[in-house]
Specification:
alpha+beta; 17% helix; 452 residues; globular
Amino acid sequence: MLHRTLKGACAAVFTAGVLVLAGQPGVAAADPAPLEAPAAPAPAPGLLKALQRDLGLTPAQAEQRLAAESRATADASALRAALGPDFAGAWLNEDGGDDVRLTVATSDADEAGRIEATGARARVVPHSLAELDAAKTALDRAAAERAPQAARVWYVDVTANSVVVHSPRPEQARAFVSASGADAGLVRVVASDEQPRPLYDLRGGDAYYMGSSGRCSVGFPVTRGTQHGFATAGHCGRAGTSTSGYNRVAQGSFQGSSFPGNDYAWVAVNSSWTATPYVKGSGGQNIQVTGSTQAPVGASICRSGSTTGWHCGTIQQHNTSVTYPEGTISGVTRTSVCAEPGDSGGSYISGTQAQGVTSGGSGNCRTGGTTYHQPINEILQAYGLTLKTTTDPGDPGDPGDPGDPGGTWAPGTNYAAGDQVTYGSATYRCLQGHRSQTGWEPPNVPALWQRL
């Protein structure tokens, strides 16, 4: 858990679903034809720069990778539905050079042709994803009764067609597996000194404060009917805990919270705050959120948090269980993105698709680390929330997109409550007197400006 206490170059080729980033020829598809991925907005420069920095990509490679991953996500979803109970997972791999390809696994050899017809690679494996999930569920059930200190992290590894358990004491971890009733033939225990911890410490990634106890980060702005709020980590607060925003202005309170077992919560905000469909990117730039389709293993992913800002990595495994000192969390996604205390609750986004909120991890952003996020779709379903997106009907998009937005607002100006300005194509009314500065543009600070 990442919560800080106050005390302390080539064009991408998409031929019949083939994801190639080096100008390699694709494989012509016959039947079935792959689904067309919806057109995505051009990636924000800040996102591209972070991918270049953290994944060692050129600008062209970063753009190509995002485009390829968008197509792969659509293809993986379609094949999962088509294969049904024979589906055994999907992932992206790099085969040397610049090629990034989608692989889909199946437990039925007769389905390999269906997969290859879309241009994806097929891998025939002994066990379906449902079988692996059942073994992991047995471990989760055992951990719910008594958190195992010998088993720190476990997950379904679709690339290895097994459940993997990380432990500093493998023999004790094997005893945990045996006692859980899980099929031991599906579980592999590996030695690991990883020691995950809670990452203690209305735009995704902005800071908020819990009463007088600490700081966390906004995950994703949401609505519930006409009520605005945001999703965040459950370990940051319990139902009834009051919050204030990054500017210490009264904000709202936790309406629901689950931790351990899960690590999610949602906060309802007062009328001074408005949910926006953005995540705080590199340099404070707004990153659009257009949906919440889960990206496959191997896809790039970026995180926004109030301590370390904007960092990127890749998705390593979905459906992971991790044991913190407080108990076991199940169903989280494991990533190579770094994080530090105070980043808890913050946003994970792949391209423009919301992925989840920061739970915890190990390491830091100086030497690198491993982090876990609670998938956003589970949070939305649990509390009946609607993700705020730029594709919402009537949403005009971000007037602060790159380029000169125009308007009367200007940094270095003293504004009084009630003053009106224009920014981009919108008009705003000042809610609180302040001196404006770069980064506090009206669409970025709903506590200071109300859009009219």
